[in-house]
């Protein structure tokens, strides 16, 4: 699967996804740090990459319709959680992908559960 990691996702998480066999690009590698959310969303659509982020703004399905994209994954961590919490959510994502295909959906991955938003019209 092709992923784009937002600037709030670290290198260790990038490597975990690569080690699991995924094609990973990052906002930082493409010099997109600080870009507007709408621009990042459009870049992900153009590149057909699933956006992985901590930014809850991407959960606004009217503003960022997941069905227009390859998918959006929001990793839920505590406000002052360290990199280890993010890496735990990446492990959860990798495990989920072995059971469920992600496509044109919004996944919110929390400790112990995942919420999946699907467009009923798709």
Give the CA-based shape: globular
Count up the helices.
3
Order of helices and strands: EHEHEEHEE
Considering DSSP H and I runs of 4 or more, what fraction of the residues is helical? Answer: 25-40%
Strand content: 15-25%
CATH architecture: 3-Layer(aba) Sandwich
Task: Count every beta strand, where a strand is a DSSP E run of 2 or more residues.
Answer: 6
Q: pLDDT below 50 for ≥5 consecutive residues: which ranges?
A: none
Overall pLDDT: 94
Structure characterization notes:
The chain has 122 residues and is an alpha/beta fold. The chain has a single domain (2-117), classed as Rossmann fold (3-Layer(aba) Sandwich). It has three helices and six strands, in the order E-H-E-H-E-E-H-E-E. The protein has helices at residues 11-19, 37-47, 83-97, and strands spanning 2-5, 23-26, 50-53, 72-75, 106-110, 113-117. Strands 2-1-3-4-5-6 form a six-stranded mixed β-sheet, sandwiched between helices. Helix 1 packs parallel to helix 3.
Quick structural overview:
The chain is α/β, with parallel strands linked by helices and 122 residues long.
């Amino acid at each position: 699967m092709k992923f784009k990691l937002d600037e709030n996702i670290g290198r260790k998480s990038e490597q975990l996804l690569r080690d699991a066999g995924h094609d990973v690009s990052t906002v930082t590698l493409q010099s997109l740090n600080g870009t507007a959310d709408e621009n990042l969303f459009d870049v992900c659509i153009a590149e057909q990459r699933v956006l992985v982020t901590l930014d809850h703004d991407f959960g606004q399905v009217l503003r960022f319709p997941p069905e227009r994209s390859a998918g959006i994954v929001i990793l839920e961590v505590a406000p002052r959680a360290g990199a280890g919490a993010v890496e735990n959510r990446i492990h959860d994502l990798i495990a989920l992908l072995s059971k469920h295909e992600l496509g044109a959906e919004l996944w919110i991955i929390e400790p112990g559960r995942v919420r999946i938003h699907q467009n009923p019209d798709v």
